[in-house]
Amino acid sequence: MDQDNIAPRFLRSIGAATFSQLWRVGVTFATHLVLRRLIPAADWGLYDWAEVVFLVLGAVRDLGLNVHVLRVHPRPFGNLLLVETVWNGALVLLTVVGAPWIALGLTQGHTEVIPVLRALSFFLFFEGLALVPLVYLEGELSVGRAVAPELLRNFCFAVVAVSLAVEGKGVWSIVIAQVAASATFAASLWWRVRGRIPLHFEKGRTLRLLGTSYRLSVIWLLMLLVRYVDRLILGAMTDPTTLGTYGFAYWAAFIVPMIFVQPVGRVAFPAFVAYRQQRRKQFDTFRISTVTLLCLEVPAALFLYLNAGPVLDLIGGSRGWVGADVYLRILCFAPLIDPLSRLGGDILATRHRDGWWIASTSLTLASFVVVGVLLTGAFGARGMAWANYLPLGGVVMFFGLRHIAPKGLRLLLHDLAWVYLLPIPFFVAVWLLSGGPSATRPDLRMALSFVALAGVAGAYYRRFAPAFKRFFGWARAEKVVDSASPPDAQ
Question: For residues 435 and 423, what is the distance between their CA atoms, to the nearest angstrom?
Fold first, then answer.
């Protein structure tokens, strides 16, 4: 990759990835407007729990090689394809056979749990096949070529899911739609990279590559568990209806991170790899990316807190989701607690400091599990929601990043202070103008909240736009000549 083109390609790829993600979430949102009204909460609880099971199995399937291939030259995509066919196929068979034992994790059960697990095994297989061309395009910062397959995938999901839900198929509406969409995605991705992807195969090195990538596999598994351990705990300690209601609130609370963290993250890691010999530019990219994400998440959290009930009624209807607004008011601020861990682990990974990332994620997972189990036992699902406020691994992440670039970290924390503080006056004004705690006009509060979002956007633009323009304009105008200076100067 030409060093002169990294920043422009980074920006274009983020744009393409964000467009794709916005389309995906837009289609998903529109689909949820229908599905949340047609599919019972208990069925949603089953699917939410099964989804986590297969995300964990996906991490076991990939074994970290999907990330590690981007750190190896030449990139062994042939070895990755071997893993995603042979090991993936074996894992699918193990899942089909072991479905009755996996189902024990949903303690209060559901009549469809075992057949749903077996059907989703096909989803696991197709996702693995799609991973090879997707990683190739992301590694080349050519995410734009993956946009059309992603659009097709989500259109397929929407059509199949809604059609089946209208016919009263319940949880199977989502399951069949996911399998069909993943098969469509895999086929269209391979069609897009035909004749382009170099399937370099290093004979006899697959096991050695896996031996090097296992730490990344552990990291990814830990990250998934941190993100979704709520569902596993609630699946073991509550009933499917409570799990489905909590899952709805969790989805709404994390909808903005879900939209933007994934597209930024999928482009940021290859950019961090490309800048790994230029620490200042690497950390500037990290700072710009993190500030961008939090500029979206902070006002969104305040908006959701003030408008939890109306937002959930809009998405899911007023019936069938009793208590979800209580969970949402607790969960909406949880995404803001640990901003450094958004992309900080990717920085550590580019410098092969995976141990710091594992320690950070393990500590957060341990705190979520221990505190989550205790609080769920005492307060039910609300206790699990409060447990999300204790990501203790953020402390480890802070020291890991501080060791790499102390000055850059101070600049980032200064920027984040502005990100967190600027929206507060706008939303305090909304709260006061709409009647404070005794508000009787939710429509007025929501309208004022949209005005506040516009005001916050203007304030953020005045504060951060010059820095963004300098970063991307300077990167395009200048040649990268930092090789003459030590890469660890900062």
Answer: 19
Residue with tokens 């010999």: 277
pLDDT of residue 342: 84
| Residue-level length of the chain | 490
Start-to-end C-alpha separation, the chain: 24
Domain span including residue 242: 3-421
Encoding tokens for residue 240? Answer: 């499917």
Compute the distance between CA of residue 61 and CA of residue 38 in angstroms, rounded to an integer.
33
pLDDT tens column, 244-292: 999 999 999 998 887 777 767 666 666 777 776 777 777 878 888 899 8
CA distance 142 to 193: 11
464 within some domain:
no
Q: How many distinct structural domains can be found in the chain?
A: 1
Torsion (CA) 154, 157, 162, 164 in degrees, nearest 10: 170
Q: How far is Cα 15 from Cα 142, in angstroms, rounded to an integer?
A: 11
Q: Is it true that the peptide bond before 486 is cis, omega within 30 degrees of 0?
A: no
Residue with tokens 């937002």: 311
Q: Which residues touch 106 (CB under 8 Å, ≥6 apart)? A: 46, 49, 113, 235, 236, 240
Question: Token pair 């609080």 is at which residue?
Answer: 375
Any residues with CB less than 8 A from the CB of 340 and at least 6 apart, and which?
290, 394, 397, 398, 401, 412
Q: SS3 for 140?
A: coil
Amino acid in the structure at residue 265: G
Q: Distance between CA atoms of 242 and 263, rounded to whole angstroms?
A: 31
User: Does 228 map to a domain?
Assistant: yes
Nearest to 306 by CA among 333, 287, 344: 333
Residue type at 350 in one-letter notation: T
| pTM more than 0.70 | yes
* DSSP, res 361: H
**Residue 321 half-sphere exposure, CB side, CA atoms within 13 Å?**
30
Contact between 343 and 286 (Cβ < 8 Å)? yes
In a domain, 86, yes or no: yes
> Residues near 224 by Cβ (< 8 Å), separated by ≥ 6?
52, 55, 56, 59
